[in-house]
Automatic annotation (TrEMBL):
The keyword Zinc-finger applies. It comes from Nicotiana tabacum. This is Histone-lysine N-methyltransferase ASHR2. Residues 299-335 have a biased composition (Acidic residues). Residues 298-335 are annotated as: Disordered. Keywords: Metal-binding, Zinc, Zinc-finger. Residues 10-264 form the SET domain. The keyword Transmembrane helix does not apply. It comes from the Eukaryota.
Length: 391
């Protein structure tokens, strides 16, 4: 049974879903490409190690800096694309304490020998404890998100807490303790989204920053998602912040259906998906796709992925159309006898075929009452006509 609570977003509501924790379900039928969420981050923090910045990205909006950067007046870690971004940051995310803390941490790196991941976690903790002071209400929201402190190594929590303690964190109503630090690290581990670099087929896609998005954190994972997220960090926008997360549904979704994202590219093979989910999020996936692929060997998995874009015989196409009707429109369980490769249609229809991309395709948002026939990749931003994808 689902126990629902009120949500400020009209197309979604938060529900306690048996065996999956809290999730988001649709409050009405959704159309392909429909924007169901525009979410602003509670906090953003750089994904760079604790070294002097090369001032490539703005430390407030994380856009690439195209003109002469405006430096932070107190440290070498931060630079800004405009005086407006500088002013906003100096009164919020880059207060004097944050600035001083980053400088101190860099100076003690040689004695602590922090791993890069630990350096980035330290950045998060500095941002989080700063948030507790400048916006207690946002900090309460952060604490309300899912994340079990037992998921964090006790040694890591103790090391990072000790480091932050040397920085004389600001006094807030929430206090400062090892338990709170461990709780914050857990919130970050299972809820942070990466703000990604634009796609480049010749190199691995990097992360500019990590953000905690209060509503998007409730999206559960599915290896065949019915929605995907878009980010336009370098774009100039008037109706939202450039660091907002945009989530669109991929295909028709009925009222009352859970909306799920994939936490990584959908072309990951079964063993890699399960390893990633267990290590990073602490659960084993039992979605319909994983139930089928659990019986495959890794060789079978690779063969299936290699053949994902090939044409099928007419009879096989007919069966596949029946399967997608079940999966896309009703999301029923896989029928016995249709278990060889029930997600082949998803790969053909909704996975970008650009080299080294691995992104997911969703239609552009509907215009008035008309559905778009143009699909956009959420990784490389390539646009394709729907009929081209079926060739």
């Amino acid at each position: 049974m689902e126990k629902t609570s009120q949500s400020p977003y009209p197309l979604l509501k938060i529900a306690e879903i048996q065996g999956r924790g809290r999730g988001l379900i649709s409050t009405q039928p959704l159309k392909p490409g429909q924007v169901i969420l525009k979410d602003s981050p509670l906090l953003l923090y750089s994904a760079s190690p604790l070294i002097p910045s090369n001032n490539t990205f703005c430390s407030n909006c994380f856009k690439i800096i195209l003109q002469s950067p405006i430096p932070c007046p107190m440290c070498t870690f931060s630079a800004f694309c405009t005086s407006s971004c500088q002013s906003i940051a100096l009164s919020s995310s880059h207060t004097p304490w944050v600035c001083q803390s980053l400088t101190q941490l860099r100076n003690i790196l040689s004695s602590h020998n922090l791993l890069i991941d630990q350096q980035i976690q330290a950045r998060f903790l500095i941002s989080a404890y700063d948030l507790a002071l400048i916006s207690p209400s946002s900090f309460r929201v952060l604490l309300s998100l899912q994340g079990d402190p037992s998921f964090i190594s006790e040694n890591d929590a103790l090391l990072l807490h000790s480091l932050v303690a040397t920085l004389n964190p600001p006094t807030s109503e929430f206090g400062f303790s090892k338990e709170l630090t461990a709780a914050l690290l857990a919130k970050d581990k299972v809820n942070a989204f990466g703000l990604m670099e634009p796609f480049d087929s010749n190199k691995e896609r990097g992360v500019r920053a990590y953000g905690i998005y209060p509503m998007a954190s409730f999206f559960n994972h599915d290896c065949l998602p019915n929605a995907c997220r878009f980010e336009y960090v370098d774009s100039d926008v008037s109706d939202r912040s450039n660091v907002d997360m945009i989530v669109r549904v991929i295909h028709d979704v009925p009222e009352g259906r859970e909306i799920c994202l994939s936490y990584f590219p959908v072309n990951f093979k079964y063993s890699d998906r399960q390893k990633r989910l267990k290590e990073d999020y602490g659960f084993i996936c039992n979605c319909d796709r994983c139930v089928v692929e659990a019986n495959w060997s890794d060789h079978d998995d690779d063969d299936a992925m290699d053949n994902e874009g090939e044409e099928n015989e007419d009879e096989e196409d007919e069966v596949m159309e029946e399967e997608v009707d079940d999966e896309v429109n009703a999301n029923d369980e896989v029928e016995e006898g249709d278990q060889d490769f029930p997600h082949a249609y998803f790969f053909m229809r909704y996975m970008c075929n650009r080299e080294n991309c691995g992104g997911t395709l969703a239609p552009l948002p509907p215009s008035d009452a008309s559905l778009s026939t143009v699909m956009e990749c959420n990784v490389c931003s390539n646009l394709s006509k729907c009929d081209e994808l079926m060739v």
